[in-house]
Amino acid sequence: MREKEYGIWQALSWAELAALVEQLACGLHQAGLRRGEHMVVVGANRPRLYATMLAVQSLGAIPIPLYQDAAALECVFPINNADVRFAFAEDQEQVDKLLEIRAQCPQLSNIYFDDSRGLRNYDEPGLASVDELLAAGKAFTALHADFLTTAVNQLKPDDVAAMFFTSGTTGNPKGVVHTHNSLLDRAKAGADFDKLTHKEEVLAYLPPAWIGQNIFSYAQWLACGYVVNCPESAATVTIDLKEVGPTYYFAPPRVFEGLLTSVMIRMEDAGAIKRRMFHYFMAVAQRVGPAKMDGKSLSWVDGLLYALGNVFVYGPLRNNLGMSRVRVAYTAGEAIGPDLFTFYRSIGINLKQLYGSTETAVFVCLQPDHEARADTVGIPIAGVEIKVADNGEILVKSPGLLKEYFKNPAATAEVLTADGWYHTSDAGFLDAHGHLKIIDRVKDVGRIKGGANDGAMFAPKYVENKLKFFPHIKEVVAYGDGREKVCVMVNIDFDAVGNWAERRNLPYAGYTDLAQKPEVYQLIKECVEKVNADLSVDALLAGSQISRFLVLHKELDADDGELTRTNKVRRGFIGEKYQPLIDALYSGKTAQFIETIVKFEDGRSGSVSATLKISDSRTFAPVKVAA
Fold first, then answer.
1. Residue 549 predicted with pLDDT over 60
2. Which of 136, 428, 433, 534 has the fewest CB atoms within 10 Å around its CB?
3. pTM for the complete prediction?
4. Is residue 166 part of a domain?
5. Which residues of 357-386 are buried (b: 16+ CB within 10 A; e: fewer)?
């Protein structure tokens, strides 16, 4: 592993890591952690956090990574549900969080912190530094040299390895129980699929509590032996990405959206000659780049133009994004916009999609090289079987399936059949080439009722993702199931729209003021109508065109309960919270006052109020496309 500290990359060899794990395991054993018990780890990607997880697993205990940006109260249920006595906290922020809820979690006896800054005068029972734990473990190891080897030899592949809590969009989160075999089998299957070796470089910058990050920088790290690089902080990730130059990269669509937005903002500020050159060669790339990426031959003229573009635009752009060495890049978590997907592939980045979930240990379907398409999520990989239920739901059988939901047999029985099939809750189908296509969540796919589009299919996530491709739009919530038309609430991307406004000398006092500018509404209206034009040629979803929209007065936030910790929209919660806005959209109003309670980062609460404009958008008659 490597860790960036004070601007310098510090390396940790496998031998040094093994010694660290042994001392931590012995220290935890001496402190009372026993086989089958749970221990939470809260923090960013750090060698000591990874070593702690390995130490816990070596003892036959079970690590539970929690989101480091979760509010203190969000940690109460997982800690009590799993009867957690031991915790690893990265720094003062995480220690304060755990101490705050200690009264609600009386069994939480031992808290170990890694970064001691700000904690010198803390005097709490059971609070100690990882350094103290290591010292105790080192002394224990000196007396019991074979202890760890004996403990590890007692482990079996089907023993529980880790537990991950779901985001809890509809209630309390569920603890997804995985075995060593389910995690390592899928890690190896994914590695074999893309021919990963120990020579890969990975940047670990997403929350360890997210199964995607945990598979890519933990399970596959153990399966392949490649190098995991831990950035200095969230603020330095972009710089660290350029310095590391990973060969294997993973990010949800919103990260790729953010990178593209920053590029386009900088491009708008460039000189006229640079802008013209950029747009000319990007047009070339979008025309021939995907074909080149898929291994198809180009004409000599196109080949020459692309080669020139690679020298002047694509190469420098890949380098600026930190992706000059990327051999394989994946995106998952939600659908990615086709234009966004095409952009990265057209400039020579092997971006592909995968399909999976926490319950399937991520790897269900992957896209082979030269077969990456924006509208599919790939083919079932080794060990996976897929079938489609009568209601369109995708069912999966795989060695990577969860063992159970912890202490929740009813929920387990709902998703796992007696013969081993897992209900994904996703609607989709396998196309003629064997690639899986996902439409939306089964429960979210609805129908328009009444009006000209009565009975038309409505897939909210599909509509939302098409709008989110535009760099000026950050988040979208679409409604229409059981209604006569589709309406959406939009979050603008404050940085992108702010830059757009400044170039036009449009003054604004903050997010709320900018969001309600008539010029901004016109900008968003153009985006909405472009999406409607695209939808009009889709035989299934032409009835899902957007009739009305508004721009929200605040950004949707996980701290306000509007997003999950993996930044997925909690549509039901938002619908209840903003019911007056939804009523106004459907009642034909042109404006609606709203006041919203918000939480600040320091824990205080306040309110944001505004009178929001509501705008109509043009819809298009369905276009029949020739077969």
1. yes
2. 433
3. 0.82
4. no
5. bbbbbbbbbbbeeebbbbebbbbbbeebeb
